[in-house]
Amino acid sequence: MTKMIDSLVTKLTLSFVLLIVVIAGLAFFTTYDATQKALKAQMGCELRSTAAAAAAMLDGDLHAGLKSGDEQKTEYLNIQKYLQKIRANNPNIKYIYTMRRAGEGVEFVIDADYGAEEDAASIGEAYEQGPNFKELMEGFEHNSADQEFTTDQWGVVLSGYSPIRDSLGNSVGLLGVDMDSREVIARQQFIQNTIFYIIGIAILLAGAIVMIFSKTIIRDINKLNQTATKISHGQMDVMVDVKRRDEIGELAESFSRMQASLKIMMNQDENHNKSEK
Amino acid sequence: MTPVTPLAQKVLETTTPYLGPASKIFLDRQTKRHMNGVIFDYLEKDHLPDLSHWVMISAGLLIDKNKAKELSEKISILQAA
C-alpha cells in the first residue's frame, strides 16, 4: 500500500495547489497595486470635485480682506459656517479650510474647526511644508489633490485643493478638504479582503477538483495494478476492467492484449504437453 | 508460417490489436478445431462467417466480451483483396 505522502493524489494535488497559489499571488500583487492606485486616483478626483464645488461659492474679495484677529467678524463667521455646512453634508471630509500665500509659504485663513477644536488654525497661522506641498501650491492655480497621504499635526489625510478667486478672477487663496486616511485605508482593506476571499475560494475549489480528478486516475491505475498482481500470481482468469479514452485507457488495452496473448500461449503449451503424453 | 491468402493476412492484422502476438496461434486453433480442420493460412471468404462466430465466443473468454464482439464484427465484414 502506497503511503499518503508518496501517493500520486497527494503529489498532484499539492503541485496544482502550489501552482495556483503562485499564479494567484502574482495576480494579487498586480491587481492590488493597480487597484490601490486607481482607488487613490478616484478619491483624489472626489476631493478635487468637492473642493472645486465649495470654492466656487466663496467670495474671494471677502476672503482676501480677512486678517489676523478677524475671527469674530461676520464675514469670517459666515464663511466658516458655510465650510461647516459642506462638511456636514460630506461625512468623508475630516477637515475643511482656506489658505493663502504668505511670502514663500502658505498660511491658514479660515478653519471650519476654529473655536471648536484646540488645534484648529487661526488667521495667519503658518502651514508647515510637508511632502505634498507641490500639490498644495498647484491648488492656488487649478484643482489638485495629493498623490500620497499627508502626515501632519492633524493626522494622516489625503487632501484636495481648489483656487478661491476674487471678482477679477485672480487667485487669492485656496480651499482645502482633507479626507481621513482611515476612510481610504478601509476602502483599500475592503478590496484587499475581497481579493483574498476570491483567491482563497479559487484555491479550495481548484484543490478539490484536482483531488477528484487525480483520484479517478489513481483508481484505474490501482485496478490495473491489482490485475497485474493477480496475473503475476498465476490467476489468469481476471479481466482488465478499465474503460477510458485517454492514455490510461490505452495502457489498459495494451495490458489486456498482453494478457490474452499469455493465455493463448499458455493454453497452447498445455495442449502440446497433453498431446505429447 | 505467414498467411498465404491476402484474406488470412487481413484477418491476422485485424486480430493482433486485440489479442497481441499470439493471434496467429489463436486463429489457427479456431479454424482447425471449429471449422473442420481448415488451415488458417488458406482462409477464404466463405470461411469468414464461421470464423467470425467462433472468434466472438473464444475471444470473449480471453478479453472483454464487447471487445470480442467488436473484433468479430470487423472480421465478418472483411473482403478478400
Please describe the topology of this protein.
The complex is a heterodimer of chains A (277) and B (81).
Chain A: H1 8-56, H2 60-65, H3 74-89, E1 93-102, E2 105-111, H4 133-138, E3 144-145, E4 150-152, E5 155-165, E6 171-180, H5 181-232, H6 247-276
Helix pairs in contact in A: 1-5, 5-6
Chain B: H1 6-19, H2 23-34, H3 48-59, H4 65-76
Helix pairs in contact in B: 1-2, 1-4, 2-3, 3-4
Give the overall form of chain B.
globular
Count of helical stretches of chain B: 4
> Low-confidence stretches of chain A at least 5 residues in length (pLDDT < 50)?
none
Name the helicity range of chain A: 55-70%
Number of domains of chain A: 2
What's the CATH H-level homologous superfamily of the largest domain in chain A? PAS domain
From the helix content, strand content and strand pairing of chain A, which structural class follows?
alpha+beta
What structural class results from the helix and strand content of chain B? mainly alpha
Can you describe this structure?
The complex is a heterodimer of chains A (277) and B (81). By secondary structure, chain A is α+β, with helices and mostly antiparallel strands. Chain A is built from six helices and six strands; from the N terminus they run αααββαββββαα. In chain A, helix 1 (8-56) runs antiparallel to helix 5 (181-232) and helix 5 runs parallel beside helix 6. The longest helix of chain A has 52 residues, at 181-232. Chain A starts with 7 loop residues before the first helix and ends with a helix. The mean pLDDT of chain A is 86. The longest helix of chain B is centred in the first third of the chain and has 14 residues, at 6-19. In chain B, helix 1 crosses helix 2 and helix 2 (23-34) crosses helix 3 (48-59). In chain B, 33% of the residues are buried. The radius of gyration of chain B is 11 Å and the shape is globular. Chain B has one domain (6-76). Chain B is mainly alpha-helical and 81 residues long. Chain B has four helices and no strands. The A-B interface holds A 239-240, 256-265, 268 and B 17-23, 25-26, 29, 59, 62-64, 67.
